[in-house]
Amino acid sequence: MAIPVFDFSKLDGDSKAKAEALAEIANGCEEWGFFQLVNHGIPVELLERVKKVCSESYKEREQDFKRSEPVRLLNRLIDGNDGVSAEDLKKCDWEDGFILQDDNEWPSSPLNFKETMKEYRTELKKLAEKVMEAMDTNLGLQKGYIKKSFSNDDNDVPFFGTKVSHYPPCPRPDLVSGLRAHTDAGGVILLFQDDEVGGLQILKDGRWIDVQPVKDAIVINIGDQVEVLSNGRYKSVWHRVLSLKDGNRRSIASFYNPSYKATIAPAPELSLGAGEYPAFVFGDYMSVYVKQKFMPKEPRFQAVKAL
């Protein structure tokens, strides 16, 4: 079983091609919660630069990772030190990463990192908004509905962050995860994953299946807020990253999320009445999510309803 891969350029084709593209995206959202886009419009030359600067950035951080808490705990457990158990490692992720936002400090090295990632984020944001417009159409919503909801009816700017991660080789992948299983809190997630080293998996029909590496593809997945806006028609999906003995997985995930002040609720056109998802402020949801990220999502919706 493989994650579906769609030719996004068909969305700009004739009426037949556009209809096919919309149907494929609808299927990806409804049946999978994860899908991959090729021919998405982001220049291959830019993607190659992104790979280069992000890999070089990790090389500069590699020694710091070797002194990190997960590495320290695993080494102590392997050495048989008292006070460290396998349960301690189940609360860790074998991951090195940092977040890029418009208003935080970015690494000044390697050369051209800032310029490259700024250009990349601009392209990713455009792609995210185009994907959301396709979702609007498929859900029978007015064009721009999801974006407007995320921007608090145009009163705020949606959150757009990029997490640059690496999952280094792990000597005992049986003891620690690359990234523990979770659903994403936000809206639409766009992942530029390693095209050689695998490890990303989603839970579908009770089975963990691989998100196969596809060169220069962008992986799209649904976050909790799109699940709410669609009133459950599109669902966020559990996913995880395995730690591996070989390889050094690169992962660049961008998150197009609501403003922290935005109120999220099922779209009126999709509302069914009693028993559906509650309305809540996204910032309140995040205050619950940070404590319950690796737990089932349904109690989070109930917890935020009570606020």
Automatic annotation (TrEMBL):
Pathway: Alkene biosynthesis; ethylene biosynthesis via S-adenosyl-L-methionine; ethylene from S-adenosyl-L-methionine: step 2/2. Its EC number is 1.14.17.4. The keyword Calcium does not apply. GO terms for molecular function: 1-aminocyclopropane-1-carboxylate oxidase activity; L-ascorbic acid binding; metal ion binding. Keywords: Ethylene biosynthesis, Fruit ripening, Iron, Metal-binding, Oxidoreductase, Vitamin C. It catalyses: 1-aminocyclopropane-1-carboxylate + L-ascorbate + O2 = ethene + L-dehydroascorbate + hydrogen cyanide + CO2 + 2 H2O. It is an enzyme of class 1 (oxidoreductase). Its cofactor is Fe cation. GO terms for biological process: ethylene biosynthetic process; fruit ripening. Residues 158-258 form the Fe2OG dioxygenase domain. Belongs to the iron/ascorbate-dependent oxidoreductase family. This is 1-aminocyclopropane-1-carboxylate oxidase. It comes from Acorus calamus (Sweet flag). The lineage of its organism: Eukaryota, Viridiplantae, Streptophyta, Embryophyta, Tracheophyta.
